[in-house]
Amino acid sequence: MKISVIGAGYVGLTTAACLAQIGHHVFCSDCDVLKLNKLQNGKIPIFEPNLQEIVVRQGRAGRLLFGSTAEAINHAEVIFICVGTPPLPNGDADLSSIEEVAQVIAKQARGYRLVIEKSTVPVQTGGQLRKHLSVHGATTLELDVASNPEFLREGSAVDDFLHPDRIVIGVDSKRAADMLMEIYEPIVKGTFQCPLHSVCERAGTPQLLITDTNSAELIKHASNSFLAMKISFINMVSNLCEVVGADVTKVAEGMGLDPRIGPAFLNPGIGFGGFCFPKDVQAFIRIAEKSGCNFSLLREVEKINQSRITHFVDTIREELWTIRGKKLAVWGLAFKPNTDDVRFAPSIALIRMLMDEGAVIRAYDPQATEKARELLPMIKYSANPYEAAEGADAILIVTEWAAFGALDWGRLLSLVARPLLIDGRNMFDAEKVTSQGFHYVSIGRSRKGPATKTIANDFQKPDRLVSALSDPTA
Ligand code: UDX
Questions:
Q1: Which atom of ligand 1 is nearest to the CA of 345?
Q2: Quick one: which of 69, 108, 167, 217 could link to 123 by a disulfide (CB 3.0–4.6 Å)?
Q3: For residue 58, how far is its CA from the centre of ligand 1 (angstroms)?
């Protein structure tokens, strides 16, 4: 099918490239002319694994073109809207970009158009979009509006698009449903050439859910808010673990063994960031409260998340006594590994708070340095983790990049002013780090060590277990 995608950001570019990959003829537009020029030369302005190769390959095959929104609207009957919906100061989603696209469609489109919301939007946006297009559109415009929310995680967006757990389609007509099922048929049937076959992890076919647009819009906000709630829940529990001498990693592991809970999104840490969870939780609360519903539960989820940065700074202060003048190596700036995105990243708020207390920061991130520099031009950025660690009074793990797990500890020990590693993502094994000569502090594990001697590792050696039980001082 011929398909137009409006918006070439993390969602739009992934959507356009993957729709071309599964065989469609896609025209992708963006209002940023500089970005368009880069894309037309096969350069993508974001770091997203596997995306660059697909954009180049599909561009060469003539299945992926880039140009203006006006051209996109003429290119196809199917139009995916993938523009940003950032939070307004009061937490509402800013839908002005959506309205701008609707204006161009209304002014220009003739004949049938299926307009599909891929951007995350508040419930009932589909109805507003339909009304706007019906009022301002040409009399010859025959319209369907659908909701097809994205469930892409940055860092695995291509894999998530091509191998989704579920495809949610919110439609109000059979014609729209049939067209969307035709669009996704290669994915549902698995009949496309997967560019990730060597790394593709998912097996099984995705579940296709067809519902109305309001329910589809709500599925997105409710899903993200639930995942954010899981994270805040384990972060809340981790605070208690620190005080009573439990290990939150073991608590999360034990909880996750219940299939009704599951292990995913129970990793405690410095909190959730990114351009989705923070804004989606805010927008969901705003929608609910404007509809007269009490969403105080999600307000607590937000509060717990915001408190993670302060809690982490308190931990740093507890270890260093004072922060003023201390040299701190910040390892990780992106809001999560395998992306260069620093939007709403915990690192940004943390660095600002540490600098307010007079800390001297040197930061390193494998991908996100340039984007972080736009927000924090005043700090020093290092070319590698060792350079950041030179003379450091503490190394702070803020993003759990795999590369941090494969370092030369001896070299690090020779570089730091103080062998202290404070792990905001619990990515390290405590014993391994302490055996390398570092004092190790992490999230949700008592500073003073577990209240009772763990005998877990004795289970492999029953004789030691018996001796430990018979002689507790052993
Ligand atoms: C999220 C949703 O996962 C995805 O389905 C949706 O389409 C978009 O929003 P994304 O924001 O890319 O994806 O990242 P995700 O992997 O969900 O992580 C979000 C934040 O939560 C990151 O800052 C991450 O560090 C944090 N996180 C995640 C935790 O703190 N603990 C966890 O256990 C998992």
A1: 23
A2: 217
A3: 28
- Residue ranges around ligand 1 (CB below 6 Å): 150-154, 224, 227, 231, 265-267, 269, 272-274, 276-277, 335-336
Per-residue pLDDT at 202: 58
- Residue 446: which pLDDT band, with cuts at 50, 70 and 90? confident
How many domains does the structure of the chain reveal?
2
pLDDT tier, 448 (very low <50, low <70, confident <90, very high otherwise): low
Judged against a pLDDT cut of 80, whether residue 450 lies above it is answered with no
For ligand 1, atom 21: residue with the closest CA: 272
Residue 175 and residue 250 in one domain: no
Task: Determine the Cα–Cα distance for residues 255 and 457; give it in Å rounded to an integer.
Answer: 20
How confident is the model at residue 271, as a pLDDT?
98
Residue 235 lies in a domain: no
Among the atoms of ligand 1, which is closest to the Cα of residue 157?
Answer: 12
Whether residues 180 and 315 fall in one domain: no
Task: Specify if 225 maps to a domain.
Answer: no
Closest Cα to atom 9, ligand 1: which residue?
276
Rounded to two decimals, what is the model's pTM? 0.91
Q: Are residues 19 and 106 in the same domain?
A: yes
* 31 part of the active site: no
399 CA from centroid of ligand 1 (Å): 12
| Dihedral over Cα of 35, 40, 44, 49: its sign | positive
pLDDT digits (tens, 9 = 90+) for 381-435: 999 999 999 999 999 999 999 999 999 999 999 999 999 999 999 999 999 999 9
Pocket test residue of 167, 230, 272, 307 for ligand 1, highest count of atoms within 8 A of CB:
272
Token representation of residue 139 = 């009399």
**CATH code at 372?**
3.40.50.720
| Structural domain contains residue 329 | yes
Q: Which of 28, 82, 241, 276 is catalytic?
A: 276
Shared domain for 414 and 370, answered yes or no, is yes
Q: Which structural domain range is residue 65 located in?
A: 2-211
Q: Of all protein residues, whose CA lies closest to atom 26 belonging to ligand 1?
A: 272
For the CA of 152, the closest atom of ligand 1 is 7
Q: How far is the CA of 230 from the centre of ligand 1 (A)?
A: 11
